[in-house]
Specification:
CATH class of the largest domain: Mainly Beta
Strand content: 35-45%
Radius of gyration: 30 Å
CATH topology of the largest domain: Immunoglobulin-like
Strand order of the largest sheet: 38-37-40-41-42-43-36-39
Oligomer: single chain
Length: 633
């Protein structure tokens, strides 16, 4: 049955905000009756990487849109059923095993990232066969101690693989030992011990999963103590004031802080010696004092204490209205920033479009920014506290739609969708980006429908970037359009082949990573070569030419980097090297069309030791921001 809250009626309510408060101290007895409603179910099976049933695994379903939630535990045969769910179109189903972490349902393959989970709908019935596979996992373990060999408990240790874009973390136990579990098999983990501020953090790179005794010996961070009292201009002690110490030279920001006690005293510990400390002082939001900062403080102090005097705070207020008709804009976000005073506060407008922000100093460098889902943002600079700082916003719009696979009809979650106006390139209000959700839907918000003269724009270009597919663009679009994409991929978008040794043999104890570049240098992606020597790059543009680089690893050590070039016969291509920089494309590296089979051989045996040491993967040659090139401060 579905969960309900008592709202005064037997039917109850699904929403907690409708719940009626019951006074148990009253003399009269309160009768609370419920009429239960049968809910929907989600069922399926959880298996391990071998397909065997995974018993006693926790499975949860949660709808972000409605807040409905349910959970279950798998039986001996790996099956589960979650009952009592409300109707919702966006359930994310998660299998969580304590030692290996979380896995999410996706009909194409199980994923580890919630944002890539496929939405499951109960709006039209009880979905079945919502299966999840727990992929092969390993662990990394070790011990964390101090300089004298004493174990350090409650130290956070995490491991991250760039190849898998996955990781996990744990706290050390009372003996200083840790075991980071739930890690996909890989050899590129970065393991980090991230203690509190008073201990220096450490990192170890290129660690293989299933490694043991990855130990850390942490050094204490030596420092000084800064104390003082925060008072008003009349000498009254002020409690609950946040005091932070920042230093640009030491890259300290947000790590060392204190809150004043009831007598206004603060204490900052662990401060390294420096002459550029800045104290950021923030009074409680409901107080009448101004935020304050003091620069160029030297530690250690010449005296015993450093006291702080706060002045009376000022406010800024105003209204946010629609430029077209003067109507108030509710729930608009208002952000006030001062670079001089390191001040940052935000609020939202009320139903009359009004806002008010306090704790401000009497300076005139404030920057006030207003943002709204339905209107274009606006910023005013060099503002002072006071009333009447009003905003009139132009209405904005969006472009939305759905992204699917053309041949299967399956939605594509996690695809990046970009939009920009061809005639207004470089202006942030004429560009935007969105990521498709679990239902393949995207909404690019905050787009301006007209140019500066009010002329309607019909030249928006929308491009979809989905993993495994070539980019797809559609132009000549207006704000407000519903634009769907049907993505296609085939052999014309692939480049595949084999990787062999010098004599055409498969190589034992050697792993290969292939990286592909557009001719001219732009990096596209990488693949791990299979154990049978085969590889395949997908999602390529059939109109372009590509060059390929292969790196051979023996264990964690990169042995050789070579680029594919024309071989001595038509049967295979041969590897070549760039002597000065192994990641620089050699002039005679071969350029391939898509739908081509590449049979690659290294140019000499990998058993031979090389004098030059290389580390992989290579440097970043092309950075693509998921939030578009247009950004707002």
């Amino acid at each position: 049955y579905m969960d309900h809250y008592y709202d005064g009626s037997e039917n109850g309510s699904e929403n907690e905000r409708d719940a009626q408060i019951i006074d148990t101290t009253a003399s009269e007895e309160t009768m609370v009756n419920f009429r239960l409603i049968r809910g929907t179910t989600i069922s399926g099976r959880v298996a391990d990487s071998n397909g065997d049933p995974a018993a006693e695994v926790s499975v949860e379903a949660w709808s972000r849109n409605t807040g409905f939630y349910g959970s279950s535990v798998t039986a001996e045969d790996g099956t589960y059923i979650i009952e009592g769910l409300g109707p919702a179109p966006d359930y994310k189903v998660e299998a969580r095993e304590q030692d290996i972490g979380s896995f999410f349902h996706n009909s194409e393959k199980t994923v580890r990232d919630r944002s890539l989970a496929e939405s499951v709908s109960t709006a039209d019935g009880d979905p079945e066969d919502i299966d999840i596979m727990l992929t092969e996992i390993e662990s990394i373990s070790g011990k964390v101690t101090d300089m004298e060999g004493y174990p350090l408990p409650l130290m956070w240790v995490d491991a991250w693989s760039e190849l898998h874009q996955s990781g996990n973390g744990v706290f050390t136990d009372e003996d200083g030992r840790y075991e980071v579990s739930g890690l996909p098999k890989s050899r590129d983990y970065m393991v980090s011990a991230r203690p509190d501020w008073f201990t220096v953090p450490q990192e170890k790179t290129d660690i293989s999963s299933n490694s043991v005794e990855v130990n850390f010996v942490l050094n204490p961070r030596e420092g000084y103590t800064l104390t003082g009292t925060v008072i008003s201009s009349t000498g009254v002690s002020i409690p609950n004031v946040s005091v932070e110490a920042w230093s640009a030279s030491l890259n300290i920001r947000g790590d060392i802080w204190s809150v004043t006690d009831r007598t206004g005293n603060y204490q900052l510990d662990g401060l390294p010696k420096a002459d550029d400390y800045m104290l950021i002082v923030s009074p409680p939001k409901d107080s009448s004092y101004a935020s304050f900062n003091e620069k160029e403080i030297s530690v250690p102090l010449d005296g015993d204490a450093h006291n702080i005097v706060l002045s009376r705070g000022l406010n800024v207020s105003g209204t946010v209205m629609a430029k077209a008709d003067g109507s108030p804009i509710t729930d608009a976000q208002v952000i006030v920033i001062s670079s001089e005073n390191n001040f940052w506060k935000e609020t939202v407008t009320d139903r009359y479009g009004r806002y008010n922000i306090g704790n401000m100093s009497d300076i005139s460098d404030y920057e006030i920014t207003v943002m709204s889902d339905s209107h274009l943002g606006q910023t005013k600079t060099e503002q002072s506290p006071g009333s009447g700082t009003d905003f009139a916003l132009d209405r904005s719009g969006d472009i939305s739609g759905e992204v699917k696979d053309k041949s299967t009809g399956e939605v594509r979650a996690g695809a990046r969708v970009e939009a920009y106006s061809e005639s207004m390139q470089g202006m942030s209000e004429f560009a935007g980006v969105a990521i498709t959700d679990g239902d393949g839907r995207y909404v690019i918000k905050g787009l301006k429908p007209t140019d500066q003269r009010g002329n309607p724009l019909s030249d928006y270009v929308i491009t979809v970037y989905a993993k495994g597919y070539p980019p797809l663009s559609k132009g000549a679009r207006r704000v407000g359009d519903e634009l769907n994409f049907a993505l296609t991929r085939g052999k014309e978008n692939e480049l595949s082949g084999t990787v062999m040794g010098f004599e055409g043999e498969l190589l034992d104890e050697i792993e290969f990573i292939g990286e592909i570049f557009e001719r001219g240098g732009d990096y596209i992606s990488f693949v791990k070569v299979d154990s049978d020597g085969t590889f395949k790059f997908t999602g390529l543009d059939s109109e372009k030419l590509y060059q390929v680089m292969f790196t051979a690893y023996r264990g964690d050590t990169p042995e050789l980097i070579q680029w594919a070039a024309e071989g001595p016969s038509d049967e295979y291509d041969i590897g070549i090297e760039s002597i000065d920089d192994p990641y620089q494309t050699p002039a005679n590296a071969r350029a391939y069309k898509t739908d081509t089979t590449v049979h690659f051989r290294f140019s000499y045996t990998l058993k031979r030791k090389r004098g030059r040491s290389v580390r992989g993967p290579g440097p970043v040659t092309n950075i693509d921001s998921p939030t578009h090139i247009f950004t707002k401060r």
